[in-house]
UniProtKB/TrEMBL annotation:
Domain Response regulatory: 3-102
Provenance organism: Streptomyces phyllanthi
Domain of life (superkingdom): Bacteria
GO biological process, one term: phosphorelay signal transduction system
Protein name: Response regulatory domain-containing protein
Amino acid sequence: MARILVVEDDDRLRELLERQLTRLGHEVFAVPDVEAAPDRGRAMELAVVHLGVPGGGWERLGVPVVGISGGPRPVPYPPGIVDLLRKPYTLAELGDVIGRHTR
């Protein structure tokens, strides 16, 4: 499957997302913020980023980014975001979004 970078500042949500993606068969590298992933994004096929992560910076990751947000749907998506997953989401919804943006 795909190599996916997860950027989520909430420890519990980061661990949950890592488990969900692993369950879907992906290789996952999870960090609390973009700064904790220097050059790591470039080794991944996709990043899944909580849009509320302090410091932002997902456009520097160098890979397509699926944003996760519990807030209102921004139209258009913020720069660098290829898709948006709204909280709460199901495992099937996560799998569908990831599948649209990976090989």
